[in-house]
Amino acid sequence: MARTKTVSRENLRERVEELSGERVFACYQCGMCSSGCPYAEQMDRLPSQVIRDLQLDDETLLDSNAMWVCASCLACEVRCPKGVDLAKLMEALRQIHLRKALDRMSLDDLSKEAVRNLPQIALVASLRKKSG
Amino acid sequence: MADEKLTQIYIMGKAYDVPVGVTIMDAMEYAGYRFIRGAGCRSGFCGACGTVYRKAGEYRLEFVLACQEMVEEGMHLTQLPFTPAPRSDYVLNELDPRENVLLQHYPEIARCVSCNTCTKACPQEIEVMDYIQAALRGDVAKVAELSFDCIACGLCAMRCPADIKHYHVGQMGRRLHSIANSPMPDHLTERIAQLEGGTFDNEMNALAGASLDDLKTKYAERVIEKAVTEEVTT
Amino acid sequence: MSELTYFPGCSLKDNAKRFEDTAFFVMERLEMPLRELETWNCCGTVYSLTADDLMHHVASVRNFVRTQETGSEELVTLCAMCYNTLSRVAGRINADEEERTKINAFMDREPDYGGTIRVRHVLQVLRDSVGWERLAEGATRPLFGLKVAAYYGCTLVRPRETGIDDMERPTVMADALEAVGAEPVVFPFEAECCGTYQIVDEPHLALEQSGRILQSAALAGADVVVTACPLCQHNLEQAAESLAADVEEIRDIKVVYFTELLAAALGADEGSMTPVVRELITSRVTAEGGA
């Protein structure tokens, strides 16, 4: 029986800062990122809440859908008045899962019909962001 | 036998003295290994004997076929006789080669990061990464051209960080290319017509009905070289 | 006639072939033909954002090595996602000698990358090397009366370091179409994300976003939305198809690549156009200068 892979939950803020190269305490919770994010309504935590949870080292953040709904559109990054790159923080949260082979996306669920109509960049990009 | 030059190699971590100037496969058999897997044609065509080795003092891994590569002093080797690579099901004549068929059947090729590890792992010196990239683009002709020498040893698939099954993609590409781009060879068309017309039926039936002794005699007396020479000179 | 070293990207050879074909036509007419790299590989979109990840930049760097081999200092792309990925990798690896050395050491079968390649998008070439005046002169079939909504998406204008125009009010694509006689229409969603790769496994995210974009363009009076990216094009087309029944405004709006309209304006044969473009040319474009 295969071992169940699990994400490690300790020292979340420290690991995210190392993976992203960003300082989460630079954020002063102005909310610009949340108001500009096109997908904020689909997230179970707002972008500004995600960074707040990182400041508070809240490991339940790892179970949020926010980093998977994020499309790396960078609307947050260009508008942050403190220059915090939230997109990099989201990427770090994704990588914490993906580097443990906990893929978000499975190719098995893709029909041939779906692949037929997609431009290659769609598959390349989604596999980069959602599989390890 | 006493004058035979010997050299030391390591097979799966254990040291053996084997003769100089023989292939890895011969050396392993000399050392007492009996192949029931990982050996086939012994001529560099079937891809069964994929072998990974390192030279003493070096860190790079090399990838060869055991039946083709000569042993060297200080080789540390192991074999990879099988790769559990899934093959996509398809009926060739039902596929439209103008679509991105390869991507549909092997969507994992979109995971290729162009690291080139597959090319480095190929014992046939094939540009593996390049044909996977061609497959991603739907360039079936290029896949066929570049993957032509592939013998499906599986070493590329074992090393790939994206878990791509290169040799299955290559095979499908060559088949698609043949139905889309290659003209049907005349001699093949002729032969199929002959078979369907019954030209060889009597011969086949005679063989099928022959006794075991008959077959053994026929095999022992078969003519090879003369036939080849005749064809060449006519 | 000066040639531009061109990087197509995987989608331009297959799914988005008409984007490439029309761009070739336009650039030939403007005497700056696109010459494809002889060997190239997928750029590896989307740009990898972790601090320690060099592996995912190798794909782009390999293309820069190929560019070096042609003697060119610059690589030009059409696909906005490829532009974004290649230019961000160039930005990072050109500036960081240590990372460049590591990547060169890993790619031990290639010549070393020297860190000097620049990446440009065709729109930048049109604006900075061709100029709007010259583009206007080439318009033998001006698109008067055609109301065009230029849709930039994310990857052309963000991040600031590589954006080809101001991300809050970009104008470069609109300017190009205005130069050939079209009437640009401003709408608030012109640089909002189309949904990008979410279309693969969370399609509702992309379709909602793209639907909003189409609706916004339609309400602003646009006949057609133009794109510079095969994925934006795909997502907007999908949204138009799946939401037309429910959203009245988007029933008539069309979506095409900006080069399809430029090619039409520069005299492309009607036979080479898609039915959508042909219809726009024949029914929406007026004979004289628009109001």
Structure, described:
The complex is a heterotrimer of chains A (132), B (234) and C (291). Chain A is mostly helical and 132 residues long. Chain A has helices at residues 12-20, 32-36, 47-55, 66-69, 75-79, 86-98, 112-117, 120-130. Chain A has two domains: 12-100, Orthogonal Bundle (Fumarate Reductase Iron-sulfur Protein, Chain B, domain 2), CATH 1.10.1060; 104-132, no CATH class. Helices cover 47% and strands 0% of the residues of chain A. In chain A, helix 1 packs across helix 6 (86-98). The longest helix of chain A is centred in the C-terminal third of the chain and has 13 residues, at 86-98. Chain A is globular and about 45 Å long. The model of chain A has no long low-confidence stretch (mean pLDDT 94). Chain B folds into three domains: 6-79, Ubiquitin-like (UB roll); 92-180, Fumarate Reductase Iron-sulfur Protein, Chain B, domain 2 (Orthogonal Bundle); 192-233, no CATH class. Chain B contains eleven helices and five strands, in the order ββαβββαααααααααα. Chain B has a five-stranded mixed sheet, covered by helices on one side. In chain B, helix 4 (128-137) packs antiparallel against helix 5. The longest helix of chain B has 15 residues, at 166-180. Helix content of chain C is 45%, strand content 10%. Chain C has helices spanning 17-29, 55-70, 80-95, 97-106, 122-130, 132-137, 172-179, 198-201, 203-219, 230-243, 258-265, 275-284; strands at residues 4-7, 34-36, 74-77, 118-121, 147-150, 183-184, 224-227, 254-257. A four-stranded parallel sheet of chain C has the order 2-1-3-4. In chain C, strands 6-5-7-8 form a four-stranded parallel sheet, sandwiched between helices. In chain C, 55% of the residues are buried. The mean pLDDT of chain C is 94. The chains are: A mainly alpha (132), B alpha+beta (234), C alpha/beta (291). The A-C interface holds A 18-21, 38-39, 42, 68-69, 71-75, 77-78, 85, 87-88, 90-92, 95, 104-105, 109-110, 114, 117-126, 128-130 and C 9-11, 14-16, 42, 44-46, 48-52, 56, 79, 81-82, 154, 158-160, 167, 192-193, 195-202, 205, 209, 230-231, 233-234.
